[in-house]
Amino acid sequence: MISYLLGIDIGTSGTKALLIDAANGAVKTSATTEYPMSTPQPLWAEQNPADWWAATVSSIRSVLRGERIQVNQIIGIGLTGQMHGLVLLDKFGRVLRPCIMWNDQRTAAQCATITEKIGARKLLDWIANPVLPGFTAPKILWVRENEPQVYSEIAHILLPKDYVRYRLSGVFATEVSDASGTALFDVRQRCWSAEMLASLDIPRSWLPESFESPIVSAKVSADAASETGLIEGTPIVGGGGDQAAQAIGAGIIRSGIISATLGTSGVVFAATEKFSVEPEGRLHTFCHAVPGQWHWMGVMLSAAGSFRWFRDALGQDAVTQARANGNDAYEVLTDLASTASAGSEGLIFLPYLSGERMPYVDPDARGVYFGLTLRHTKAHLVRAVLEGVAYGLRDSLELMRGMGLYITQVRASGGGARSALWRQILADVFDSEIALANVTEGAAYGAALLAGVGVGVYQDVAEACAHTAGVTDPIEPSADAQKYAASYPIYRALYPALAPCFKQLSAID
Q1: How many structural domains does the chain have?
Q2: What is the CATH number of the domain that holds 123?
Q3: Domain membership flag for residue 472
């Protein structure tokens, strides 16, 4: 009988359920159920955990119904999803308030308080990262200060995917890669940080037990089996945060092979067998979903999001043309960008349209076109956006190189990576081969592979990753790499020069 592994991804816009063949890793079917995000105040972002659960039930039932899967063929479940979210439950397991999400920016004051109280250097020693507004710990303090009644009723704190684990099993559990992004986790020792909890006066009893990612941490309960159609007792592994799980799906499990993701945000991800921290905290150091490994991660907030801004604000003619010809507006714009020369004739774009996260933790940073002249056309404007995002990703890449990482291959993924022009620009700016990752199902696929390790289908994560689809279309750096090497230092000089002006603009706003 064919056996299947189920990956469930609690994403920002919806929950995906994905079935893969345990024998060869082939995707059988998937289904996604969407849900809303609310912004009750500027810079706030919240979701209702009940929506995640309803979407999980719907997506699971869709894959079971759509492919006529025999439910006893599903032998393991892996969970993944958006990181950093704060889910608060009372002693009865009831949700106390909407989840404060990863992209919520309300906690700048709490981050400053934590950093001042503990010290930036000690934070790197204790949790391997600075405390950022997206992380979980400052959100807990925000609730303490602003919603004391809610705070008084807290009995359990969970991350988004772990709330779904609780609904599937009744078990409070998490795993090391997702816990690394809470600012409460000792990333070096792979356990909750007693020092952070004591300093912030957060009870250890509120936090779930933490497991390695491929370890079975729970089993489907009778109640959840009735709701979802799954079999009671089906094993559930720890799983992984979305970036770690996506890296498993793309085979990023050994030093030298890294990933560059061109989604709404941009991520450079590198696995490492040795724990180390960027001296100034300009990269995340988190536990990887591979036991005994860590990963470095650089995150920029507006990657393909910058391209989308250009399409919506300045590219309506491309949208109209695409609709008339049955094409994609992004393809129309990249075709236009290809007519401009590398370097955009001295035009440089700073992609800080949503502030920036790395290497500059600056919510006040702004987008900038620098070097405009009368010669510049829309083709230059488009190409400069693609080049500016590549420069921004290179910032993280250079930090990794500075930490001793020797890069043998970069695997590109995300919607922006479908553009051959953008991949060529990346290859030239990075001065490294860029290959296209074949896996398109993202984090849910990696979660399913982790489930296979947990239930013994695969001996370890490396064997599981041998089933991934690998890469295609490798692109080598061209002669244009020299132009980008000359322009990159100018790009690097612009943020330090403009940072005081960014803050002045924010004060005026």
Answers
A1: 1
A2: 3.30.420.40
A3: no
**Inside any domain, residue 67:** yes
Distance CA 423, CA 419 (A): 6
Q: What digits encode the pLDDT tens for the residues 348-405?
A: 999 999 888 889 988 889 999 999 999 999 999 999 999 999 999 999 999 999 999 9
SS3 assignment, position 158: strand
125 catalytic residue (yes or no) = no
Distance CA 337, CA 334 (A): 5
Q: How many CB atoms lie within 10 A of CB 43?
A: 14
Whether 144 is in a domain gets the answer: yes
Query: Are 11 and 441 spatial neighbours (Cβ–Cβ below 8 Å)?
Result: no
Q: Rounded to an integer, what distance in angstroms lies between the CA atom of residue 450 and that of residue 396?
A: 27
Q: Containing domain of residue 212, as a range?
A: 4-238
pLDDT at 117: 97
pLDDT in tens, 151-178: 999 999 999 999 999 999 999 999 999 9
- 9, 178, 242, 395: the active-site residue: 242
Whether 450 maps to a domain, the answer reads no
Q: Which parts of the chain register pLDDT below 50?
A: none
Contact 462, 250 (CB under 8 A): no
Q: Which residues contact 509 (CB under 8 A, 6 or more apart)?
A: none
pTM: 0.91
